[in-house]
Design goal:
alpha/beta; 7-stranded mixed β-sheet; 36% helix
């Protein structure tokens, strides 16, 4: 299936994590599935999957979120890619990034993991860093707060007010990659506002 894309949102399972910075990737894939009224189903790869289309007659989307923890995202990513016959350059991973200010979305293909353990595990499991990334900025922790504690905390009130816009922007960015390719998507998403 040449025009099938896997869009995987990273995060941790359970109600205690669902509103944290670390789960913004899963918020984005929830938005993508919601836009299409796609329903989630359990998959044997250790993920929940919503199969849908970019739009009628366009690319097939396999929207997914692991049912395990962030640091073990590689197994579900590799399992789904194998099951659906999707190459790494058709895998889009949506994840939080503390090196980007809150309310920033950046797109890239390949490269390192930048300390993001979910991305690290996916690189290892896929045997390639060449998948696409939608990096969603959650900002750096204030003062000397441990980054691990920061990403597992919930968004502040000012951030929560803007979070739906950030999630929508990141979902738009993933759709743009599928629709127009990475370079065109970067030109749109990275343009100054």
């Amino acid at each position: 299936m040449a025009d099938t894309w896997l869009i995987l949102g990273l995060g941790n399972p359970g109600a205690q994590y669902e509103k944290t910075r670390h789960n913004v990737g899963q918020m984005v894939v929830d938005e993508l599935a919601s836009r299409r009224s796609a329903s989630w189903k359990q998959h044997k790869a250790g993920a929940r999957v919503a199969e849908t289309w970019l739009r009628p007659g366009a690319a097939k989307l396999v929207i997914a979120k692991s049912t395990g923890y962030m640091n073990t995202s590689g197994g579900p990513a590799a399992g789904l890619a194998k099951f659906y016959g999707i190459e790494p350059d058709r895998v889009i991973v949506v994840h939080d990034d503390i090196d980007l200010p809150f309310d920033t979305v950046r797109l890239k293909q390949g490269g390192g993991h930048g300390g993001q353990n979910g991305v690290r595990d996916i690189i290892k499991a896929l045997g390639s860093p060449d998948f696409l990334r939608v990096r969603v900025g959650v900002g750096r922790p204030p003062g000397r707060q441990d980054p691990a504690d920061w990403v597992l905390s919930t968004f502040g009130s000012a951030e929560r007010a803007n979070l739906p816009i950030l999630v929508s922007d990141a979902a738009d960015a993933a759709e743009l990659i599928v629709e127009s390719g990475l370079t065109a998507a970067q030109q749109t998403v990275h343009a100054p506002r």
